[in-house]
Every structure is written in C-alpha cells, then in structure tokens.
Amino acid sequence: MSVSPIVRSVDLSALNTLGLTCQAGHVADLTHLSQLPVMSALAQRLGLAVVLGEGSNVVLPSSLNRLVVRVQLKGIELIEQRPDAWIIDVAAGENWHDFVTTAISQGWDGLENLALIPGTVGAAPVQNIGAYGVELDSRVESVTAWNIPEARLVTFAREQCGFKYRDSMFKRAGLGQWLIVGVRFCLPRPWQPVLGYPDLLRHPDLAGIAPEAIRAQQIFDAVCDIRRTKLPDPAVLGNAGSFFKNPVVSASEFHALKLRFADVVSYPQAGGSFKLAAGWLIEQCGWKGKRQGNVGVHERQALVLVNDGHATASELLELASAIKNSVSEQFGVELEIEPVVVSDTSL
Q1: Terminal-residue alpha carbon distance, the chain
Q2: Among 65, 283, 328, 343, which is disulfide-ready with 302 (CB 3.0 to 4.6 Å)?
Q3: Residue whose C-alpha is closest to residue 65's, from 113, 12, 119, 140
C-alpha cells in the first residue's frame, strides 16, 4: 500500500528549465498509481492541478496556488517482441533522454532522432515532441492517463490521442484534465534510418555513408552532438528549447512570401502546405542575440528564448509578444508559443 502524498510549499524556480521565479503553495509527488484518487480529491479542494514532470516545456507564473503534481512514476518494460515491432511500456516519470539511451542500448531502435530532448516520458505525448524528421506519434501505440475531474483511468490508442504538430488532445484539454501515467511504444522492425534533415546528412559521422550501413547509435550520437552545439544547456542558461512552433502556411501564402523573400527557409508538407523555419523569421527581424532585461534571444539559435537570471514569466512573455509582432508585421505570419503557459487563479 502506498503512502498518501505529502502536500507542501515548494520553490519551483530550480524545477523548471527556464529557471523562472515561481513559488508554489501546494505540491505533491505522485510515486504510485494508488495515489491517483487522492490527487483528484486534492485538485478538487485546491484548484485545477498543474502536472509537472521536469518542467522543460512550461512557463510558470511567479506564484502558483493551484495543486502542482510532480510525476515520479518509474519503470521500463519490454512487453512484446513481435516480428514487426518492439512493444515497450514506460512510466511517465522516466527521463525522456535516459529512456532513449536505454532503448538504443537494448537494440530497440527508432527513437534515436529524438535524443537529448529534455523532459519526461509523460510530457512527450502532450507536446507530441519531434526532431530531425521523427515525431513521437509515429512511435506510440497507446497512452494511459488519469482523468483528474472524473477520477478514472483511460487508455487511448494512438489514433484517439488527437496528435498534431506539437499538439495533442491532452494539451488542448488544458490544465487539470489529464495526468499521463504511462506510454506504450511501438518501435517498428526492421529498423530504417530517418535522414531527411540537412544537419544530419552533413554531420561528419554520417556524411558519405550509405543509408543501409548506418546504425541507430550513429544517428543518436550525431543528434546529441548537433543539439549540444546549437542549443544551450538549461542547467547553465535557462531555456525551454524551441519557444515558437514552426508555422505552417498554405501553398499560395508560401509562394507570395517567396516572391518577397527569395531565401525564406521552408519544408514542403503533405497536402501541399509549407512549414516555415520560425528561427529564420525571427532572425530576419533582428532579434537574434538581443536582450530585454533579464531575458533574451539566444545568440546561436533565434528560436530559443533564454533567462539570464531571476526572470519572471511576465518578462519572458513580453519579449515573446514583441517577437511575434515583429514577425507578423514583416512577414504576415503568426507565430505560436510552443511551451504551455501556466496561469494562476490569483493572477
């Protein structure tokens, strides 16, 4: 029998990768599934729950009086080795990169392009994380989540999760609805490398090698090297990775932009639309490397907003708003913030 969760006041400033100042009044750790009904009761009494993994994709307010649930569930288990797939169950509290590392070491290939993405396994479906040509939804069989208001456990097949680009039904449902407790992965066999992104093709450890000779470990190592080169370490400089989604525009909108900006960076999408590189748009507006008080735009990657120390959510969102306005005025393109912005009932 598990011990009931202890609710306490916690300074979350060091528990979100942006390093934003945040004092939470009611924080409880979820370490066992038997605690879930208690979490629902606490949420009803204290206010809509904020589910927090490693705080890698959230913008937290200065004070937070809702219930904050820190997901600490652990476990990785190979369920089935089918001729066409590896089926693996992973608890929501597992560190995402550690799981990817374990999977590669076990020969469960297919997640190597998603290496070094910060956060937990439970947070990954919310955002439908993706990188270097692979999105999470292509590797998921099902997601098990606790409905907090209704106090019931539900397992959703991949098709029921409403996955879209950096989006899912769990994200659209908003705060206090779903708490993901586990993800079942389906990693296809035989494994095929995904090498469509130029950064991967140009990497010295992969360039010139025939695709059939490349191994998952080589892609894993190359992705880690590229990410460490391009993106700041949150432990050194507060950030949440890419702060804006890459906007998707119609073919007609793209061709109109191409006439005005011949070197616009884009990626053709299924159905004829085009995904634009948000970092390129932001850089063209002159924001790369700029500072505004305690926050700024990273000097090497314009898509990353950083906290130079002791910043608040309001400072960060003010900078984000200014960047969005610049891009809209110059290109007629609307940027969307990628992290979840958490508000508080007292704000």
Answers
A1: 38
A2: 283
A3: 12
Closest CA to 315 of 17, 15, 62, 64: 62
- Give the tokens for residue 259: 């006439």
Cα dist. 185→144, 189, 195 in Å?
11, 13, 21
User: Cα–Cα distance between 295 and 45 in angstroms, integer?
Assistant: 35
| CATH, range 76-229 | 3.30.465.10
The string of pLDDT tens digits covering residues 87-134 is: 999 999 999 999 999 999 999 999 999 999 999 999 999 999 999 999
What are 215's two structure tokens?
């191994």
**Which pLDDT does position 2 carry in this prediction?**
55
Per domain, the residue ranges of the chain are: 8-71, 76-229, 238-341
Active site residues: 166, 242, 338
Q: What are phi and psi of 271, to 5 degrees?
A: 90, 0
The tally of CA atoms less than 13 A away on the side-chain side of residue 94 is 22
Residue 303 carries which DSSP code?
A: T
Residue % of the chain over a pLDDT of 90: 85
218 backbone dihedrals φ, ψ, rounded to 5°: -65, -40
Own/partner long-range contacts of 32-35 (Cβ < 8 Å, ≥24 apart): 32/2, 32/73, 33/73, 33/153, 33/181, 34/1, 34/2, 35/2, 35/4, 35/5
Q: What are phi and psi of 45, to 5 degrees?
A: -85, -35
Q: Right CATH number for 238-341 from 1.10.510.10, 3.90.78.10, 1.10.260.40, 3.10.20.30?
A: 3.90.78.10
In 3-state terms, what secondary structure has residue 140? strand
**Cα angle: 334, vertex 262, 199; to 5 degrees:** 80
Q: What is the per-residue pLDDT across 295-344, written as a single tens digit (0 to 9) for each?
A: 999 999 999 999 988 899 999 999 999 999 999 999 999 999 999 999 87
82-111 burial code (b ≥16 CB/10 A, e <16):
eeebbbbbbbbbbbbbebbbbbbeeebbbb
